[in-house]
Amino acid sequence: MSQSERKEDAERPKLNSEQEQNGTLVNPRALCSVCKRLYRDPKILPCLHTFCTDCIGQLEPFSVSSRCRRDAPEDSQVDATEKDRPTVTVLCPDCDSEVDIPPSGPEGLSTDHLALDEVFLETLVTNGPLGCDLCGEGGAESRCEVCSVNLCEFCCQAHRRQKRTASHSVQSLEELKSRGRLCRPVLCSFHPAQELRLFCQPCDLPVCLECAATLHRDHRCCPTRDVIDRHGDRIRELVTAHLRPRLERLRDSLQKVDVSQEALQARVDAIATEVRAFARGYATAVEAHCLSLLHRLEELRVQRRNQLHLQRAQLQQALLDIGGSVEFAERLLSCGSDAEILSAKGVTLRRLTSLAGSSYDPHPAAVEPEDGSGICFKPREPAGEVDSYPVVGVINSRTVDLSKCTIEGEGLQKGREGQRGHFTLFCRDSAGEQIAQGGEHVLVSIVHKEKKNCTVEAAVVDNSDGSYSVSYTPKEPGAYSVWVCVKAQHVKGSPFILNVKRKLRRHSGTFHCCSFCSSGGAKEARCGCPGTMPGGFKGCGHSHKGHPGKPHWSCCGSTVEQSECLPQSVLAAVSPHGHLRTVEL
């Protein structure tokens, strides 16, 4: 905690014991959600949630990384030793996001000046009369916004008579209470008597006059009022143009899921009634068949319910992340002063930019209302025998069970550079039967595991019988990750590993016994094997030095007829003649 922040925390009135026990607060924005007390030195986490510095320090580390802080400027106000400290990651108590704590600890996080305003205003409203911070005897009637002290009438007059404090802004406590909003000056952590009125553009920090004249004297510093519009507009653009519309879409999608759950249950109940009415016309065997049908229906209901629960959880998490950040950003823009906005600008922009660039929007096919119409009862369909009695009536589901889908074809595990590969996806229901119609939203993504920017375009053809043919042509060898998704969810086994081998090298020479025989005794004939002959011959001969002792290819020396031609780099490693071009015999 900086010197100015410790001073403000010491001067801030505390809740009395009765209020602490009952937790009676008018404004919940002044309350830390971890300790359930008024904020003490509030800090903003990268996810834009605010907690006391002590509460953040008591969070159990989720992970510790050895990453060094290399992004700090050479002339910034960051201690050089902090750059080599490990980075600690904790889980946010509100949204459960993984957030990094600076190497300097929670004190290195951005201070939430809006929360400090709310805390002071709350103490004015709930604590009643305040004592004078200077003499400690009289009751406080006013407050110096520069020194952040409460003053009685006598000390207020003395404060105004002193030359050093005569120009300070002194406000009546009753006037501050009536405003409902407190505007406090943001003071420099290095020079507590100085207000942050300038903005250093190279360091991207608000600074005071003394900092601009000393630590940032060679930097371009300008008044905060000259840059607030540019930075504030950037935050406003992210909220208005990107995140606010996405927030509405997420709410609509969540509402559709809730409607789907009700419709699904209603549909299942209707079919259960139909099944029971049909089963009552049969004897004991038919009654047993009825119970079997109900069990099948329950399996389908549980399957659909689990899918909807998963969608709902994903949408709720996205809504929580974006909603909390949008609320904080809008409150910062509407309630914060120039210095307050600039102080929280860095962490706010990073969070909003991260959310704006993430793939939170669900695919339309994944959030369409599920009314259970894919489940139907066929009373005239033969269903085999129960206790030697033939029965009819089956529960049919046209819904894909991702755990039962299968993929066939060698093109899913191995491929060849430049050659088209194929595999087929078979969509099946929970009973393992192939779906009889198409129309599912199938997404196939093929990405190189080492070169993330290397992707392979996959063509998906709906065969209208529950199967989908996938074809692709890789341009580079290596290992690829293959995602196969139906309705934006992975099928069983996805993602798969696809190993693409380099392009097949065909032999350009002759599969012969030796260059002497195959060339008719030509001295200039050479061979890819390391064999030599005396008498000025440049190729290989039977029983001579280096001859492999068996037929081989003249282009590379391989002794396997049905093989791939070895590359020149391999020839150079095994053959003294590898640097010479072999002639085709």
Could you characterize the architecture of this molecule?
This protein has helices at 3-11, 17-22, 53-57, 113-126, 153-161, 173-179, 209-213, 224-279, 284-335, 338-357, 515-518, 568-574, and strands at 42-44, 50-52, 63-65, 87-91, 98-101, 110-111, 142-144, 149-151, 170-172, 198-200, 205-207, 221-223, 375-386, 389-397, 406-408, 414-416, 421-426, 442-448, 455-456, 458-462, 467-472, 478-486, 489-490, 496-501, 511-512, 552-553. Strands 16, 18, 19, 22, 23 and 24 form a six-stranded mixed sheet that branches. It has a four-stranded antiparallel sheet with strand order 15-17-21-20, with no helix packed on it. A three-stranded antiparallel sheet has the order 2-1-6. The protein is built from twelve helices and 26 strands. A hairpin with a 6-residue loop joins strand 18 and strand 19 (455-456). Helix 8 (224-279) runs antiparallel to helix 9, helix 8 crosses helix 10 (338-357) and helix 9 packs antiparallel against helix 10 (338-357). It is an alpha+beta fold and 585 residues long. The protein folds into four domains: 3-128, 2-Layer Sandwich (Herpes Virus-1); 225-366, no CATH class; 406-501, Immunoglobulins (Immunoglobulin-like); 506-585, no CATH class. The N and C termini lie far apart (84 Å).
C-alpha-based Rg, rounded: 38 Å
Mean pLDDT: 79
Q: How many domains is the backbone divided into?
A: 4
Largest sheet: 6 strands, mixed
Structural class: alpha+beta
**So what's the overall shape?**
flat
Helical proportion?
A: 25-40%
Number of strands: 26
Proportion of residues in extended strands: 15-25%
Q: State the low-pLDDT regions, or none.
A: 1-23, 68-78, 363-368, 569-585
Count of helical segments?
12
Question: What distance lies between the first and last C-alpha atoms, to the nearest angstrom?
Answer: 84 Å
